[in-house]
Design goal:
Length: 323
């Protein structure tokens, strides 16, 4: 699908009454919410694991600055995304209480805040770490804002597949922070393995959410896969990406980056993923947020990705001490 769907049924979607919308004013908590802290926490953790897994060494100050810059860059992307999506966020249950649609913040403040963070994070990464890590951070921010948010999200049901590259780059940035320009190009395969795990994980994770939040996306005209092709074809696509993801999670073992601790942990996590995917595949009530299997799968996939990166970290620190 190549065209933007027109928003539908906005009047039927709950909104905050105007009398409950406060006057915009500075609130530190609202600026923190712009950073999408839940998403940021997973981004920062995967970046930290990429930094630890990379061959070579890095100073404590450089490591701290690298993780801080990745955090600020991820937050900048979230803030600019909220600025751009403010028109649809006010019609979706999941997003209607964000600072801009709830009326607690002026939209331009979010844009300025996000832009300042983006520039500062890339500049600091360039000065204190290295140019390739800074370039990858800039690419991640620009990709998420312009390729995913502005171009893909409202135009194609493959939005999160193509756009998922931005979410898969943080561990690559962490890797580049350690290896530097020459080292990164000489031995990129560990970074590629981490990238592919997150890239292939994104579609089944996001489509699980889209299945039980389908009405929200229909109401605002965002062409998420379940809206465009229906539940069955979405489940087929989820199964395909799950089948590709499982072998990809063993790539760190295949290239000698991890050992038996990681292998055992990932085998168990993959059994859980197969079980959840099988429940989604067999279910007739996939769109039911309370009783259906998609909500549990959505939350399991978060635990799944976190578990994979914890296993990487545990395997490295137990058998290949970094200090």
């Amino acid at each position: 699908m190549s065209e933007t769907l027109a928003p539908q049924n906005k009047a039927a979607t709950p909104r905050l009454p105007s009398m409950e919308r406060p006057d915009p004013r500075f609130r530190l908590a609202d600026y923190a919410l712009l950073l999408k802290p839940r998403v940021m926490s997973l981004v920062v953790f995967t970046a930290m694991v990429g930094l630890v897994m990379a061959p070579g060494g890095i100073g404590a100050l450089e490591a701290f600055v690298a993780i801080l810059c990745i955090s600020l860059g991820a937050g900048a992307s979230g803030a600019i995304n909220m600025w751009y999506d403010r028109d649809i966020d006010q019609h979706m249950r999941r997003t209607m209480n964000r600072p801009i649609p709830a009326g607690r913040m002026e939209a331009r403040n979010a844009l300025v805040f996000g832009t300042i963070l983006a520039i500062a994070s890339v500049a600091a990464m360039t000065y204190w770490v290295n140019e390739i890590a800074a370039g990858l951070l800039a690419l991640t921010i620009l990709y998420y804002v312009f390729i995913y948010t502005v171009w893909l999200k409202r135009r194609t049901p493959q939005n999160i597949v193509i756009g998922g590259a931005s979410g898969a780059l943080p561990p690559v940035i962490g890797w580049a922070a350690v290896t530097g320009n020459a080292g990164f190009l000489a031995d990129p395969w560990g970074a590629v393995a981490l990238f592919m795990i997150i890239f292939l994980w994104t579609p089944p994770h996001t489509w699980a959410l889209a299945l039980f939040r389908r009405q929200d996306y229909e109401a605002v005209g965002v062409p998420m896969l379940p809206v465009v092709v229906g539940e069955h074809r979405t489940k087929v696509q989820m199964a395909v990406y799950t089948a590709l993801l499982i072998p990809a999670t063993f790539a760190p073992v295949a290239i000698g980056m991890s050992g038996w601790v990681f292998t055992a942990a990932v085998a168990g996590l993959n059994l859980g993923l197969i079980w959840h995917m099988a429940k989604v595949w067999r279910a007739d009530n996939v769109a039911d947020a309370k009783e259906g299997p998609c909500r549990p799968m959505f939350f399991y996939t978060i635990l799944y990705l976190f578990g994979i990166f914890v296993a990487l970290l545990a395997d490295r620190t137990l058998f290949f001490p970094v200090f």
